């Protein structure tokens, strides 16, 4: 069935339900999990470069380490082999590129802008359309009440 599951995370509440679903599925199938955080390069587009730019990069990288570390910690509690990965680029494009190495992508409704909180989210939608393996999108019921 599934041997390798990718769980993209941004560390937000939107990804917690997907993380738990992905880990439970991995436990049931004996799959290995990779938690992926993408440092979103588009964050810099409207940010004035200068002395603050390196600080912003460090903040995003620290956020990413916490996000994937949280997935790994949950996986360890459940007895699921869990690796972590951090990449740079557009989240949707990176997830799509990485999908060719996995049997399944389990993701939440990533994205923090107003419209994506109400809808599926542009990252999840693009991944569903173009991923090279099946994609399971998990809605976080608590966030949609």
What's the quick description here?
With 145 residues, the chain is α/β, with parallel strands linked by helices. Helix content is 45%, strand content 21%.
Keyword list:
5 helices; globular; Rossmann fold; alpha/beta; five-stranded parallel β-sheet; 145 residues
Describe the protein in words:
The chain has 145 residues and is an alpha/beta fold. The protein has one domain (32-144): Rossmann fold (3-Layer(aba) Sandwich). Helix content is 45%, strand content 21%. The chain contains five helices and five strands; from the N terminus they run βαβαβαβααβ. A five-stranded parallel beta sheet has the order 3-2-1-4-5, with helices on both faces.
Enumerate how many helices there are, as a single number. 5
Q: What is the residue-averaged pLDDT?
A: 85
According to CATH, the fold-level topology is Rossmann fold
What is the helix/strand order?
EHEHEHEHHE
CATH architecture: 3-Layer(aba) Sandwich
- State the CATH class: Alpha Beta
CATH superfamily: HUPs
The percent range for helix content is: 40-55%
Which percent band covers the strand fraction?
15-25%
Assembly form of the protein: single chain
Q: How many whole angstroms does the radius of gyration measure?
A: 15 Å
Give the biggest sheet: 5 strands, parallel
Overall structural domain count: 1
Overall strand count: 5
- How far apart the termini lie comes to 33 Å
């Amino acid at each position: 069935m599934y041997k390798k599951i990718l769980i993209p995370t941004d560390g937000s509440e939107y990804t917690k339900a997907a993380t738990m679903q992905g880990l439970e599925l991995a436990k049931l199938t004996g799959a290995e999990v990779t938690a992926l955080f993408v440092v979103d390069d588009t964050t810099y587009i409207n940010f004035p470069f200068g002395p603050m730019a390196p600080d912003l990069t460090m903040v995003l990288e620290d956020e990413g380490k916490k996000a994937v570390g949280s997935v790994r910690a949950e996986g360890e509690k459940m007895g699921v082999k869990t690796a972590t990965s951090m990449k740079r680029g557009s989240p949707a494009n990176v997830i799509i590129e990485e999908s060719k190495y996995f049997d399944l992508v389990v993701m939440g409704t990533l994205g923090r802008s107003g419209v994506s909180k109400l809808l599926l989210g542009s990252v999840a939608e693009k991944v569903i359309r173009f991923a090279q393996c099946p994609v399971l999108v998990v809605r976080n019921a608590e966030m949609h009440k």
